[in-house]
Amino acid sequence: MKRSAYVLILISVLWAAVNVVVPHEASAIPVPTVQFGMEDAEEPSTLSTALQVMFLLTVLTLAPSILILMTSFSRFVIVLSFLRQAMGTQQTPPTQVLIGLALFLTFFVMSPVLSEINDKALQPYLNEEITQSKALELAQTPIKTFMLKQTREKDLALFVNMDQGERPETLDDVKIQSVVPAFVISELKTAFQIGFLIYIPFLILDMVVASILLSMGMMMLPPVLISLPFKLMLFVMVDGWHLTVGSLVKSFT
Q1: How many other C-beta atoms lie within 10 A of the C-beta of residue 126?
Q2: CA 236, 241, 245 angle in degrees (round to 5)?
Q3: 206 close to 225: Cβ distance less than 8 angstroms
Q4: 59-98 per-residue burial string, b: 16 or more CB within 10 A, e: under 16
Q5: Which of 225, 253, 248, 222 is nearest to 82 (CA)?
Q6: CA 182 to CA 156: how far, in whole Å?
Q7: Whole-angstrom Cα distance, residue 90 to residue 102?
Q8: 138-186 pLDDT tens trace
Q9: Which one, of 78, 75, 96, lies nearest residue 86 by Cα?
């Protein structure tokens, strides 16, 4: 009973304090309202912060697809993966190292294209010299030229013939929707061809080691265990990373 009385007294004191601090006749606390509106922007710099954030998030969402499908990244990462499998080093170099190397090689190869986009499309648009639609049209021209240079005619014809639209008369008239998938399958074929050539010396070395072990009667010893140090030594002696990376970069010239 005493404990209940103490609780009631405490509640009464708190309620009295609240009534003193915030009396009933006091006006209600004003609550701010939020309003949204849209109006035409005459200049690129007048875009609202919310729209700029929305555009940025859209670009960041599409960035992985653009990086993988419209640049040299896919060829680099596939060939480097084939190289690691051919050496038989399992997870060495780590996947993060291979992807990082492929990423920076992509920036190196694509730097002329990015510079051209910046000079002919981005900077004129920011300086209010061209419209947004014109900037997008000028921006896709360098990347489209790069992809067409690496795309096989057979692969490009495949998607052009499947397109139900108007037939293009020149390469400049080919739609970007047809160029991107044709470029991707051309890159996959090129990467697999390079990977096959990389596999050959390591495969020969594995066969030689397996034959030697079989002739010595050591059939229970895995040939991969013996050939791995020899493959690493061969790769280091011929400066394999220099040759592989140099050949990959030169394949885009």
Answers
A1: 13
A2: 160
A3: no
A4: eeeeeeeebeebbbbbbbbbbbbbbbebbeeeeeeeeeeb
A5: 248
A6: 5
A7: 18
A8: 888 888 888 888 888 888 888 888 877 677 777 777 787 888 889 999 9
A9: 78
Q: Tokens for 211?
A: 């034959």
What are the structure tokens assigned to 127, written together?
């300086």
Tokens of 77: 């990462």
* pLDDT tens for each residue of 13-51: 445 444 444 444 444 555 555 554 555 555 555 555 666
